[in-house]
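Sharing in case it's useful to others searching the archive later.

Someone asked me privately for the predicted structure of Phthalate 4,5-dioxygenase oxygenase subunit, so I'm posting the question and my answer publicly. Question first, with the sequence:
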Amino acid sequence: MLTQEENELLTRVGPGTPMGETMRRYWLPVCTSAQLPAPDCAPLRTELLGELFVVFRNTDGQVGVLDEACMHRGVSLALGRVENNGIRCLYHGWKFGIDGSIQEMPNHPNSASFRERMKAPSFPVREEGGLVWTYIGPKEKQPVFQRYAFMRGADENRVVVRVDTDANYLQLYEGGTDSSHVGILHHDHVAISEDTAVETVDLGIMAVDDHAPSLDIVDTEYGYIYAAQRKGPIESDGTETHSIRVTPVIFPTGRIIPAPGSFQYYLFEVPQNDHVTSTYVICHGDEKADRQGVLQILGLLDERFWNEEDCKFRAHWEVNRMNQDRHRMDKSFTGFSGIEQEDAVLAISMGPIVNRAKEHLVAADRAVMHLRARLMESVRRCQAGEDPIGVHVADYSSVVSLIDTTVRKGDRWQKLVMPELDTSES
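And my answer, the predicted structure tokens:
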């Protein structure tokens, strides 16, 4: 349980707020590369941490991030023309480069001196891994750009999806650090087929046995990593085993989720503002990724919930009870279909910002409690003039999650994912 003051500290992300100023210290995704499909395509209007930006791809294919409002009179540049390696405001024709330089001022022809002195607010950009990343914090504190394993290899090995959900980022982030809900909320995906009736499953046994894991949490330089441990089978020699699922939590908004085979899911819960979150999902592996298959797993093929054109998640109470199919619940546990669909619906159902002072937490919530504590630690560091957690970590390519894996009792799970985390004596 958090106090109202603590809840406000963690959830408010606009300019000048403690969490907002902390998040501005990191490189963050601002859109997907697919949202800017070609040089001189339509610009994108998007919000990040309570501020509005225009993102555009110039004639040479380079991406720029500028304040949405034209520096001249405040008209939206998202309505502008993208042409000749710049973006032109429709109001008076001022044209800007990706670096904010003023290229043309038709209503001020003798403008050389002005153009040399003035620039539109622009922000550093990196396009990597199917995402456009930007840094909007203090220039003097700009960190090195971080690298992930999904930025390597062929584009066909990666699926990138953006889902804009009407809920505070922390509701979605906490859901991603909660292993005990996986086999319950996502029961249809992880346990039974569409053809199996829910009433054949003993949910009491599920909750006590499979879905009340013990948690082992280790702090890291980038946030923390936790292992959800469940009882495994007894080996032929009588040795007890555990089933281990390991999830790295990467600050300020990321995590890595295990998947079958060589694939890993990387998720970033990036706040547009206090009430809307852009969830970026990247599925990446050593072989070609099936985009339609990934969208099906996520529950995003149903256009009542989401489409590629605007990336907005559409479930709301006012729209047919979140589009829940109550008639299908004799065969489906939730009446929804797909992991992201279910996660997003439940986050929205809490309201824009959930009142955590009314919670009643249990042992299975330890990773969620730890997330809050580490986020508050990061904010306090920033307020004290120190660097927030993980801001200078440059390479995450060796950070991996671990799908349910059997470990003999007494063996250290740390050896399987990051040997440097193994604290056992040699």
